[in-house]
Structure formats: C-alpha cells, structure tokens
Amino acid sequence: MILIRFLIISICALYIIRSLVRIFLPMLFQNVVNKAQEQARQQQNYQQRQPDGKVRIDHMPEPKKNSVPDTEGEFVDYEEIK
Description:
Elements: H1 2-49
Organism: Mucilaginibacter litoreus
InterPro entries: DUF4834
Protein name: DUF4834 family protein
C-alpha cells in the first residue's frame, strides 16, 4: 500500500513539475535573450557615437630596448639528416 501511494505521489509531483517547467522556462529564456539584446544595442550605440575614420589611442607602450639591433639576427647552424 505504501509503495502504490509513493508511486502515485511521485507521478503527480513529476507531472506538476513538468507543467511548471513548460510555463516558466520559456519566460526565463526570453528574459535572458532580452538582456543580451539590450547589451548588444548599448554596445552598438556606443560604437556609433565615435566618429568614423578617427583612431583613438588610450595607451602607447614604451619601445623595448634590445641588446641586439634589429638589423642583426641570430644565426643557428644546422645539418640536414637524410
């Protein structure tokens, strides 16, 4: 008797959970999609505000001081093995 009661309650609970998931999961996905679309719109608006053809540099790195000039290279001998 306990087993049958457990099975009936389990089947009812799974049916209710399945129904709730069918209702609420699409709403959750729609919310996520709307947020992604809004972020894309904001990013597109930000890019359109900057004038076309102009380059803006925020940071210019310091040139590296090499001990070997660029005109000189390092040569490594090798043998072809056949």
